[in-house]
Every structure is written in structure tokens, then in C-alpha cells.
């Protein structure tokens, strides 16, 4: 049975608006494109309401390396923390809104994390801005609430997006005029189990009457307890305090030795931002650009950021990235397949407990720095 809401006008007249289904799925998609606030960011996070930046509609997702797009996602948004938010829209009259859409969305999420190149989201966003005549810097500045006269850290924002993507930190949102019970239970279960990904449904009811249309969104599937949404800024002290809690003494000592190497050989130690996991990234400044070398994490993992290296010489050349991966693979326990040299392969820092292995790794870092400085 259709519901109603009531508006009291300034003259005291009570006006009745009756719930009405959308004429088409495309109409609801267009409303979300034009009014992203319908995703009800204030309900998703009351302490720090989510704000939205539309990357694009109809975003293609492949299911193989360098493969053609197999699926088309209805909307891709980013929030102010750079978290990719995948939105799939269905009308309640579409039978797929019950179960089929869940498998569809999980396909999107699993394959986007693996097969979207690091720069693909930025490229899609900037292409849309060009078509619409928008300024990407202004839109991101608005999202981050930066004063128009201040500089927008575009590179820093896109680094956060890429870091979230490769960590699987996504938000999956099912949007419909009505969320059926089967989908509601699935969403609540998945969101209770999945981490760091988040799964939600947004019911956007439409009420119409006497020339007035009102849209009422409601978020379904929220976790009962939410930690503070603002990411934590890590520093040396907090990083090693956390690492001592999660790793053994030898791993902590190795991380300190790598940091000592970085202080002597690079230009900047970048301490990451994250609610639970800390990182430090030795960066080299050369020819007007910062070059990433490695990422070291509080949970005892080292990332090799090939995905970022692809945009900076000399490792924009595939042959140089292959040479680097082959050097790393000479360290016992490190295995980097050749098809991962444009992504972010990782290995456990415990591999470097052997003194010879640690020396090989430091020599490889020296080689990276030498190659960058020689360009």
C-alpha cells in the first residue's frame, strides 16, 4: 500500500503527498547524478557527513588484465576521504533488486580492485569534467571544503583514492525506491562482516501531489558502532608504537633500519593517514616530481608501488620495472610475477630477518635511487 507524507504550509493548510514509483530506472539514476546528496551522507556518518563527487555514470569494469569492459556500473562517486563509492540503481519493480544485484555488485567490487589501473578513476573524472565544462580542481576543492584562494593538493587526494582502491576500501551502495526485505537482510549481514569495504542500501522514496515532488532517502545496513571517520595522521612515534603491538621485535628493528636508510638517501618521509593502519613512504624529489620508492606498513608488510612508478621516469618504462622486480625476486621469499609490475605487489617484512636478504633489499633501494637520479 502506498504511503503518504504531509506538508503543513505557512498558512496552516495540510497538504498530502502520496508515494509514487519512478517512471523509469534512468530517472532515478539521473536524479542521483544531479543530486548526489540523495545518498544521505549525513546518515552514513553523523559525526562527519559524507560529501560526494561524481566521477562518472556508466563506468566500465573489465574482468581480465587489459581486457575489454564486461560490466557497466551505474555511478562511481568519491567521498572527501577518497573512498570509491560504487552505486547500482534498481527499481523495486525489477526482480533483480532482490538477489541478483548482490552478486552483480560483488563482481564489480572484486574486479575493480584488481583490474582498474591506478590512474583510471582520475582519468574518468577529468574526462567527464572536460565534457561538462567543469574545472576538476574547483570540484575537488569544493569536496574538500578548501577556500577557493587556497591551493588544492590534487596529487595528495588522488593518492588517497588509489590507496583506498588497492586496499579494497570501497563503499558498495544499492539504491532503489524501495529496498525489499531479502536485500535488506543481505546488506545488513555483509556490512557486519566485511572490512574495510562497506555495504549499504539507500531507499529513495518519491512522494508526489498537487504539483509538488518530495524525495526522502533512508540508509539501510549501517553498522551499529562507527569509529571516528577522520583518518589518523601517523608519525614516527605512533607508527612504531602500533608496529610493536602487531609485529615482533625483529620486524620492528628491520623497519627502523629501512627508515634510517631513507633518512640518508631520500628527500622526504611521508607518514600516511589511516584509521587503523599506519605507513611511511620514502619519497625522492627529482626533476620537479616526487618519486615513490616503497611503502612500509604497521602490520609488517612492504609494498612496491609499481602502480605509481608507471607515471615517473625511468620506471615508466616496462623494462625498468621488470628489472626491478627481478632484482627483488633474487631475495629469498620475495615473489613478484611479471604481470604485477603495474600494480602494488607486497611481501612480509619478516622475509628480511635474514641479514643477507636485508642487505640485498637495501642494495635494491640504492639502485632505485641511483636510477631515478640518473634520469
Automatic annotation (TrEMBL):
Identify the Gene3D superfamilies for this entry. Answer: 3.40.1350.10
Q: Which top-level group of life is the source organism from?
A: Archaea
The protein, known as: DUF91 domain-containing protein
